[in-house]
Design brief:
Elements: E1 2-4, H1 7-19, E2 24-29, H2 35-47, E3 50-55, H3 75-84, E4 89-91, H4 95-98, H5 119-122, H6 126-141, E5 145-149, H7 153-165, E6 171-175, H8 203-216, H9 222-235, E7 239-247, E8 260-268, E9 273-281
Parallel strand pairs: 1-4, 2-3, 2-5, 3-4, 5-6
Antiparallel strand pairs: 7-8, 8-9
Helix pairs in contact: 6-7, 8-9
The protein binds pantoate.
Pantoate (PAF) is lined by residues 28-30, 58, 61, 130, 133-134, 152, 155.
C-alpha cells in the first residue's frame, strides 16, 4: 500500500492510474478502522481496479463541545488493517494540507433542509463540515466511485443529494451496516461505551427493529410508535436524542402511504452518542 500525506503526490500517482485506464474507488474515513470500514474497501475493490482510503479526522464537522480532540487516532493500526485487505493507497493528510487558509476562511458546501433534521438538529454545522470535506476529498482523489456506510444513513442521503445537485460525476455506493452479535452497529465510537453500559446499548437497535415490525404489521400511528420507542430506550438508562420514522429519500417524517421508510435513532451513553437505523420497503 502506498501512503500519501500530500495532495500533489497523491494526485500524481492517481493520474498515472487514470492514464492506464484504471477505475478508481474511494473510501473516505476518519480512521480507527473496524471490520465495517474494511467491508467498504472490499466493495470498492469489487467495483474498481484500484482503491484509495482516506483517513482524516475532520475538525470542520465537529461542534465546539464535541469529541474531536478525543476521537481515536490509530493510524499505525489502521495502516496494518488496510494492508491486510490489500488497499492500494492510503491518503492521510494533516489539517494544514486540507485547510491551508484556515477553517474559518474555507469555502463551504451546504445541502439545505435535509441537514437541519435528525443529527443535523443536534449537531449544527456538522453536515456542512461533512459535505465540505467530502467535496474536497472528491476533488483531490477524483474517484469513479465512492463507498459510504449505511450506518450514517443521513450522511449518505446528504452526500447523494450533493452529488446529484452539483452534478459531481462520481457513483455513490452504500455498504451495509455491520453489527456485533447483539445487534450493536459497529462504530469507531463504540470504544467509548463503558463496560457497565455495553450489555444494554443494543436496546437502540432492538427498539428500531420493533418499530419496523409494527409498521410491517400495518401500524401507521407513527407518533405513538415513536413515544413507545423512546420510553423503551429511556427504560434501559439512556437519553434519547431522537427516534424518527422518515421517508427514506427525503428524510422528512414518513407519510402513512410511504413505501420506503427508514427508522432512525440516536441516543447518548456516558461517553458517546450512538446512531442506528433500519429500513422497511413495503409492498404495493
Ligand atoms: O463518515 C465519516 O467517517 C466522515 O463523516 C467522512 C465521510 C469521512 C467525512 O469526514
Amino acid at each position: 500500500m502506498q501512503v500519501f500525506h500530500h495532495i500533489s503526490s497523491l494526485r500524481e500517482a492517481l493520474a498515472a492510474e487514470r492514464r492506464a485506464g484504471k477505475r478508481i474507488g474511494f473510501v473516505p474515513t476518519m480512521g480507527n478502522l473496524h471490520n465495517a470500514h474494511l467491508e467498504l474497501v472490499k466493495i470498492a475493490q469489487k467495483n474498481c481496479d484500484v482503491v484509495v482510503t482516506s483517513i482524516f479526522v475532520n475538525p470542520l464537522q465537529f461542534g465546539l463541545n464535541e469529541d474531536w480532540d478525543k476521537y481515536p487516532r490509530t493510524l499505525a493500526a489502521d495502516s496494518v488493517k488496510l494492508e491486510s485487505v490489500n488497499c492500494d493507497y492510503l491518503f492521510c493528510p494533516d489539517e494544514k494540507e486540507i485547510y491551508p487558509n484556515g477553517m474559518a476562511e474555507q469555502t463551504r458546501v451546504i445541502v439545505p433542509t435535509m441537514t437541519d433534521v435528525l443529527c443535523g438538529a443536534s449537531r449544527p454545522g456538522h453536515f456542512e463540515g461533512v459535505t465540505t470535506v467530502v467535496t474536497k476529498l472528491f476533488n483531490i482523489v477524483q474517484p469513479d466511485e465512492a463507498v459510504f456506510g449505511i450506518k450514517d444513513f443521513q450522511q449518505l442521503a446528504v452526500i447523494r443529494r450533493m452529488v446529484e445537485d452539483l452534478c459531481i460525476p462520481i457513483k455513490i455506493t452504500a455498504g451495509e451496516i455491520f453489527r456485533e452479535a447483539d445487534g450493536l452497529a459497529m462504530s469507531s465510537r463504540n470504544g467509548f461505551i463503558t463496560a457497565d453500559e455495553r450489555p444494554r446499548v443494543a436496546v437502540l437497535n432492538r427498539t428500531l427493529n420493533g418499530i419496523k415490525q409494527q409498521i410491517e404489521q400495518g401500524r401507521r400511528d407513527f407518533t405513538v410508535l415513536i413515544d413507545e420507542a423512546r420510553a423503551q430506550v429511556e427504560a434501559a438508562g439512556f437519553r434519547v436524542d431522537y427516534i424518527n420514522i422518515c421517508n427514506s429519500r427525503t428524510l422528512e417524517m414518513a407519510a402513512h402511504d410511504d413505501r420506503e421508510i427508514t427508522i432512525l435513532g440516536a441516543m447518548y451513553t456516558q461517553g458517546a452518542r450512538l446512531i442506528d437505523n433500519v429500513s422497511v420497503v413495503l409492498g404495493r
